[in-house]
Amino acid sequence: MPAQTWEAAIGRQLAQEIERQYRILPDPAVTGYAKGLAGRVTQSAGLNVPVSLKILQDGEARVFTFPGGFVYITTGLIARTETEAEFAGVLAHEIAHLKLQNGYYSSAGAATSVAPPRVFIGCSRWTLNSQIPLTSLAELRSREQEADTAAIQFLRAAGYDPLGMIEFYNKLRYDEPQLAQTWSSDNLMMLHSYVEESVPPDPEFIVNTAAFDAIRKRFLPEPKRVPSPANRPTLRKVSSPVTLH
Ligand SMILES: [Zn+2]
Fold first, then answer.
1. Which of 65, 86, 119, 127 could bond 168 through an S-S bridge, CB–CB 3.0 to 4.6 Å?
2. What's the pTM?
3. What is the distance in A from the centroid of ligand 1 to the CA of 122?
């Protein structure tokens, strides 16, 4: 069986597992918006596999990408990105894995003679440190860097400011250090220089849109209401004014 068919079969299996673990968001407006954006980036990437994008209802910011074009994004991720350029950046990075067929590999099947020794199973950026074998860390970092470099070009072609992607990953690195091992601050600085050298600034680049803000607002945590002094309940009723005679 050709390696790509193996990968697609494994991708389908992993996608089914995700759909068992998570609830798919039943909101066509959000899904439609995200699919439109993914379509734009996919087209710029010249990806010839159709992307099946689904939104998972989960407060944690997570992304899962599997061979065969399966991409899952949590509502927590939508809330965590602050602009459409950041959100498009995350999608472009995942689409780059699909295009390059690189990223996190599984050695599943290595023992059999028919399976390829390694099968691409997605992005390691969202894999917890504890699940990453340390020996492959340097290799994973270089794969992630390759995906980022490709994503920068896809974003540029799709009309998005590629710095949004780097800004988002930089924030995430500090906010969620348990996810941060597969990319270093050096990686991000190199990417920043790469953008400065290879992408001329363009005032037409999309940074944010009202459509993104409206979608994101649905998933932001409720702000904590701190009662203002005037609204605080009083312990005693105000006594009726005393009439002096
Ligand atoms: Zn990745």
1. 86
2. 0.85
3. 7
Mean pLDDT by runs of 10 across the 245 residues of the chain is 76 94 97 97 93 96 92 97 98 95 65 57 80 75 91 97 94 82 80 94 96 97 72 60 54
Q: Which of 214, 175, 238, 207 is nearest to 83 (CA)?
A: 207
CA atoms of 83 and 210, how far apart (whole Å)? 10
Report how far ligand 1's centroid is from the alpha carbon of 3 (Å).
Answer: 20
CA of 94 to the centre of ligand 1 (A): 6
d(CA 59, CA 78): 9
Residue type, 171: K
Rounded to the nearest angstrom, the distance between the alpha carbon of 151 and the centre of ligand 1 is: 10
Give the DSSP H or E segment for 80: helix 75-80
CA of 61 to the centre of ligand 1 (A): 14
